[in-house]
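for the recovery benchmark. tokens below, seq after
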């Protein structure tokens, strides 16, 4: 067989070599494009969608004996080896292979796989970490040490190896071994965090001297090798010494830092920390020397934090006037330039006053306030005075709260009130603030005199309300009555004032006076909110349970207005009166309202009334009354009307909804026409349905 196969194979090879066979290609008969074109984008999208289709999970295999287990291991190892052979550089395949062997407790095989992987790529950090973690997980401490030693020798700049190695040794209680690893690490001059980790390690075991020596080596590196020439490292060293109560050492560290950085590389953070250290040691003269030394040599734009801390220190322990003059002088000069350029720039005056209030004495503040209020607005219009008046208010509040000078406060208020042109405009807040100040000084006659003067000179609603509020708090009800009378003489159209006056009399129990006030109020020819006043009067009578008077009020109100809400409120009142005849009365009100609103142009209001009536009948009515209200409900139809532009030209057509009420005799022809139109439309729909399905008609006829 082998010889024959070889001979036949030789013949086929010679035939193929002698004459090359050309494959047949099917000829395309129709070269026209297909009706449905498929784009490359569509092909890619369908391929992506089919990737998401879930494949059925592989069947579960149960291993029952050793032979099956060995067969399973052989197949899995062959799969892993094939994957590795296809692409040796994919480290994830090596890790999966090793982890699988580890899961079978084949530690020696897993080691072999990791070693083969390291031969492929020894710079892979994850590979070293997984290898060492496997050894630690299986309590192979010496193997783990060996791996960490190889890792830090091969890749000494990977800090993660060092951290893991030192942590492992510390967890094993091998403090000396962990210290030895740290020492090997420090020889490579690592980053700042590595040094601090070493220091914290020594501090965990109370080795303060060792920690100090590490700090010294670290500072030496920064000074000579210039690995980390940063101020914060020196500050941390000094704070370490301070924390462990080695104050002389801490001061020496600060002095060395100042000497090391010199005048060319001065940093305000170093001097602030040095000064705060001396402040904690109660060495105030040394603090002042440090601050002055730094301020004399550091540029002003780079010493803002230094200025701030120096100011805080002087406020605590030093001469306030001296440091305020130094720091405030610059900003005061800027504000002086602004107010000189524009004396009526009141915002600049506010900032200037805020500065001098926080940093200077009372006489200087008063001087600046006097200069500010001297710039009176040139035009007597209120909008120009709105910012200016707050200068006076702040001045008065400063004198009262900060300077504690009640006499000067009174003089400020009186001067301001004399300055205001009350015949043209006034500021009610100024009068009220003055009155409240006098009350705080327990000088009630002066407060009343001020408010009385304000009402006499320039009456305003706010002044009346403030004065009445004051007398109410003092329980002077007779004075409140007089003030309300004056208020209503001044502003009789103010409904809120009438209501408040009546409520006051109600609280005092004088019902007749309250009713008389309401009667006077509704008799006024002009009111700003009459509906609120009438509602308050009606609620008042309902609270007094005067139902007949309430009905009379509703009747009087309906004589003035036929608004639908009034009718509905009247009906709801009758329903809530709580008597036996409440339902007939309520129904009668609805009947009257319906008759009264037949000639109403606003058909939506009439529909609102009928809807309210229907809800009433649904809850309390009989079948007959329900049928009757259903017959009264209007028909909603859509209409069109012509629109005109502002210049009189046609602007098209507009659709709107209209209501046709059955009660209106003029609308009967329209209703009849509408019913005929609906019937015709129904017949048309039936004929169209019959034409669309003739088989159904044949089946129905046969049936």
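predicted aa per position
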């Amino acid at each position: 067989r082998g010889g024959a196969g070889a001979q036949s194979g030789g013949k086929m090879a010679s035939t193929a070599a002698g004459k090359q066979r050309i494959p047949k290609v099917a000829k395309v008969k129709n070269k026209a494009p297909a009706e449905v074109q498929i784009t490359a984008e569509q092909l890619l999208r369908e391929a992506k969608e089919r990737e998401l289709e879930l494949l059925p999970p592989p069947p579960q295999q149960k291993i029952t004996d050793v032979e099956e287990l060995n067969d399973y291991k052989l197949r899995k190892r062959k799969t892993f080896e094939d994957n590795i052979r296809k692409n040796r550089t994919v480290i994830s395949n090596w890790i999966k292979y090793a982890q699988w062997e580890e899961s079978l407790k084949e530690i020696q095989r897993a080691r072999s796989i990791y070693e083969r992987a390291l031969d492929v790529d020894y710079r892979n950090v994850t590979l070293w970490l997984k290898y060492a973690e496997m050894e630690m997980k299986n309590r192979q401490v010496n193997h783990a040490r060996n791996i960490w030693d190889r890792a830090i020798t091969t890749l000494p700049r990977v800090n993660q190896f060092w951290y893991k190695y030192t942590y492992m040794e510390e967890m094993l209680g091998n403090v000396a071994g962990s210290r030895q690893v740290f020492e090997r690490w420090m020889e490579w001059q690592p980053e700042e965090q590595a040094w601090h980790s070493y220091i914290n390690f020594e501090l965990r075991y109370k080795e303060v001297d060792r920690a100090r020596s590490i700090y010294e080596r670290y500072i030496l590196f920064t000074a000579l090798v210039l690995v980390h020439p940063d101020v914060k490292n020196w500050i941390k060293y000094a704070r370490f010494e301070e924390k462990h109560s080695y104050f002389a050492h801490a001061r020496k560290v600060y002095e060395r830092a100042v000497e090391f950085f010199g005048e060319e590389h001065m940093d305000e953070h170093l001097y602030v920390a040095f000064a705060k250290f001396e402040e904690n040691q109660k060495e105030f003269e040394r603090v002042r020397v440090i601050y002055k030394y730094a301020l004399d040599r550091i540029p002003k734009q780079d010493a803002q934090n230094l200025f701030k801390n120096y100011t805080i220190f002087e406020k605590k322990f030093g001469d306030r006037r001296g440091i305020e003059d130094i720091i405030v002088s610059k900003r005061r000069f800027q504000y002086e330039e602004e107010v000189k350029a524009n004396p009526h720039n009141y915002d600049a005056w506010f900032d200037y006053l805020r500065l001098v209030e926080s940093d200077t004495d009372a006489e200087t503040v008063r001087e600046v306030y006097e200069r500010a209020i001297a710039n009176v607005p040139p035009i007597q219009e209120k909008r120009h005075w709105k910012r200016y008046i707050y200068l006076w208010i702040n001045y008065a509040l400063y004198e009262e709260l900060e300077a504690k000078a009640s006499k000067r406060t009174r003089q400020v208020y009186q001067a301001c009130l004399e300055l205001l042109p009350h015949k043209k405009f006034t500021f009610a807040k100024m009068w009220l603030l003055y009155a409240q100040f006098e009350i705080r000084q327990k000088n009630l006659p002066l407060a009343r005199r001020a408010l009385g003067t304000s009402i006499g000179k320039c009456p305003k609603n706010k002044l009346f309300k403030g004065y009445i509020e004051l007398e109410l708090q003092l329980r002077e009800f007779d004075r409140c009555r007089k003030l309300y009378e004056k208020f209503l003489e001044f502003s009789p159209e103010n409904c809120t004032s009438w209501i408040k006056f009546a409520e006051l009399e109600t609280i005092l129990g004088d019902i007749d006076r309250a009713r008389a006030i309401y009667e006077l109020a509704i008799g006024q020819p002009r009111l700003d909110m009459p509906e609120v006043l009438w509602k308050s009067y009606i609620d008042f009578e309902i609270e007094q349970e005067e139902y007949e008077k309430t009905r009379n009020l509703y009747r009087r109100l309906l004589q003035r207005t036929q608004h639908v809400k009034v009718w509905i409120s009247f009906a709801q009142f009758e329903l809530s009166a709580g008597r036996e005849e409440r339902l007939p009365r309520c129904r009668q009100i609805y009947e009257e309202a319906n008759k009264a609103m037949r000639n109403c142009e606003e058909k939506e209001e009439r529909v609102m009334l009928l809807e309210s009536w229907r809800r009433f009948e649904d809850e309390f009515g009989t079948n007959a009354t329900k049928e009757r209200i259903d017959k009264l409900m209007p028909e909603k139809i859509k209409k069109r009307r012509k629109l005109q532009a502002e210049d009189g030209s046609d602007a098209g057509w507009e659709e709107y909804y209209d209501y046709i009420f059955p009660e209106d005799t003029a609308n009967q022809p329209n209703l009849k026409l509408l019913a005929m139109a609906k019937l015709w439309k129904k017949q048309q729909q039936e004929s169209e349905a019959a034409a669309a399905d003739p088989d159904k008609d044949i089946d129905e006829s046969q049936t």
